[in-house]
Write a structure and sequence with these properties.
homodimer, six-stranded parallel β-sheet, 15 strands, alpha/beta, Dihydrodipicolinate Reductase, domain 2, Rossmann fold
Chain lengths: 378, 378
Amino acid sequence: MKRSGFNRRSFIRNTATAAAGMLIVPSISHGSIGAPFISRNMKPRIRFSVIGINHGHINSQVETVIEGGGEFVSFYAKEPDLSAAFAKRFPQAKVARSIEEILNDKSIHLVVSAAIANERAPLGIEVMRHGKDFLADKPGVLTLDQLKDVRKVQKETKRIYAILYGERLENKATIRAGELVKQGAIGKVIQTIGLGPHRLNAPSRPAWFFNKKQYGGILVDIATHQCDQFLFFTGSTKAEVVASQVGNFNHPQYEMEDFGDAMVKGDGGTGYMRVDWFTPDSLKTFGDTRLTVLGTEGYIEVRKNVDLAGREGGNHVFLVNNKETRYVESNDVELTYGRLLVDDIINRTETAMTQEHCFLAAELAIRAQDQAKNITSK
Amino acid sequence: MKRSGFNRRSFIRNTATAAAGMLIVPSISHGSIGAPFISRNMKPRIRFSVIGINHGHINSQVETVIEGGGEFVSFYAKEPDLSAAFAKRFPQAKVARSIEEILNDKSIHLVVSAAIANERAPLGIEVMRHGKDFLADKPGVLTLDQLKDVRKVQKETKRIYAILYGERLENKATIRAGELVKQGAIGKVIQTIGLGPHRLNAPSRPAWFFNKKQYGGILVDIATHQCDQFLFFTGSTKAEVVASQVGNFNHPQYEMEDFGDAMVKGDGGTGYMRVDWFTPDSLKTFGDTRLTVLGTEGYIEVRKNVDLAGREGGNHVFLVNNKETRYVESNDVELTYGRLLVDDIINRTETAMTQEHCFLAAELAIRAQDQAKNITSK
C-alpha cells in the first residue's frame, strides 16, 4: 500500500505558526489544575477532517479537537441526511466528495470518526496508512482481529490511533478523581467499580445499533469506558477478564444486549463493571454513571451525571479517607484531552493517552464480550 | 442422641398466655407498613437463652428477640470477662453454669448465639437436638460440611435454625426497598449490587477474628449479608457463584482477607458483591454499606449507614423509575424480624425467613469463599 509523504518534517513545515505557538504552552501532565488554556481564538495548530458521522458523539469529538487547537477543514459522510445536518452545525468545514479526497489531502493531520462502529478500525487503518493520525469514537475497535490489524499498522506507520473514552476524558469529576488518586488521597488503589447505565430510546436509534456485527455487543460498546477507567485508576498495564455476562432481559423485540457486567483483574488492581440500557424516563440524564475507586487509605465515589435527589447538575466527587469525608468541587477542572492530543500530533508524544493503554482498554472490553456468558432469562 | 420432649403441644402449654396474646396479632407479611407492634411491656411470648457472646452482635440479637416478645432467661459464656459485661447489660438474665443447663431447661424455646463463628453450627445442632430453636449471628454456618450437618438435623428435628442477616432484617432502608420492589416500583429485578465495607479497628478484635478456621474468610463472614440480599431481592431459590476473589492488600501482619468480591447468578437474577475492611477513620459509621437493585422499570439505591457529605444519619433510599426520581423516607419502617421469628417459634411457620433461604444464603457465601481466587498482590 502506498504511503503518503506525511512525516514529522513536512508536518512541522505545514504547521509552522502553530508549532511556534505551541512553544508557549508548558508541558502539562494529564489532568493538572490551573494550566493555561488555548482558546478557540488562537491560531489553529493542526488541520483535521471528519469521516463518518453515524453516532452523535461526533459533535463533541469535533468540538474537543477544535478546543485543542484543531482547524476543522472538511468532512465526508455517505448519508445525505446526516451530512446536511452536520454541515449546518459546522459550516466552517467543506463537504468532501469522497473518503479518498480527505485521505489524499496532505494538509490534513488528523481524521476524526464516529462511523458505524465496525467500520472504524478499517477506516483508521487507511487513515494511518495515509500518514494521518486518527481519533475514533468509542468503541474504536470491535474485534480481536480488527485490533490485531490496527496494532500492526499503528506500529508500522507510527501514527496515533486514538479512541475518545469520554466518560473519563470529558468528565471533570472523573479527572478530578484521577488527580486525587495521583496525590495519594486514598493510598494505593485496590479496585474500581464502574456503573454505566444508558437510556435506550430505541426509536431514535439507527438500524446498525441493533446489529451486533455492527455495534459489537454491550460490553464492547459501553464497557470499554469502564475498562479505560479501570486501567487508568489501577495503573494496570496488563489485564484479564475474570468473568463476564451479557443478557437481553427486557427487549426481546430487538437484537441487542440490555445488560452486561464483568470482573476484571490487572497488574495494578481489580475491577468490576456493569453496563445496561435501563435508565428510567424520569432521570434527568442519559445515565447515572458511577465510579467508585477503593484504595488502601480511602475511597472516592464519582457521580458523573447526577446526584440522585441531591445536588444540581453533574460532576460530583466524594472523597473519604482517614482525614476527611467531603464533597470535592470539580467544575473548575480543565478538560485537556483535545489540547494534549493536538500536542501529541505535533510532537509525536503520548501525553493525552498512551497508545498501549488505548488498545488495552479496547482489548479488555472485547475479551469480556467474547468470553461473556449469555444469561438472558428464558 | 437423646431428644427433649419439646414439641408443639408442650410448647403451647408452656406459653399459654403468650399464645392467647398472639391471637390479637394479625398475620403480617414481611416488611409491611404500619402493622401493630408488640412493645417490650407486653407479656413475653417465649423464653430464650444465650450461649456464646463472642461477637458484639449478640446485643442487638437479644434486643431483637426481646422486642419480638421473648423473655431473656439465662445465658452462658465461657469467658468470664465477656460474661461479666454481658450480665451488666442484661441483668434480667441468670448466668447459667454450663451449656447443658440451658440445653436441658425445657422451659427455653430459643437459644441465641454469637459464639466464635465456627462453633455456631455445632452448637445449633445440639440446640435443635434438644428441641429448641436457634438464632445465630451471621455467619451462621462456616463450611459446606457444617451446612450439610445443620440441614440434616434441622430436617430431622423440624426446629428453626435462623441466622440474623442484619444488613437487611435490621435495616429500615433495606426493608423499605424490599417493599418498593414488591409493589412493582422498578419492574422485574434484574440485578443487585451489594457493597459491604467495614472498619477493621484491629486492636479491638479478638484473636479468633484473625484465624480463618474460626472466622471463615471474608466472603463467608461478611458477604453472607450480600448473598441474603441478592436472593431476597431477585427472588432466587437457586443460585451459583460465577466468580469470586479474596485478597489481603494492606494487612500483611494479620491472617486475614481485607478484600473479597463475587459475581453470583440465581434463577431470579444476577448479582455482584464486594466486601472489605477498608472503611476510613473519618467516616462516621462502620461502613458505607450500599445496595443497588436494578429492575426492568427502574432502580433503587440504598445508602444504609451514611449519605456521603449529604443527609444526616442512615437509612437513605433513592428510587428512580419511569415516573419519578425521589428520596424515599424509611425511618418509619417497623423492624419486624424479632416479632415474626417469635411468631414462627410459636406457630411453627416461616414468616421471618424461610429455612431454605437462610441456608441458601449461607451456602452461596461459603461456595464463593471456597471457589475464590486469592488475588493478594505480591
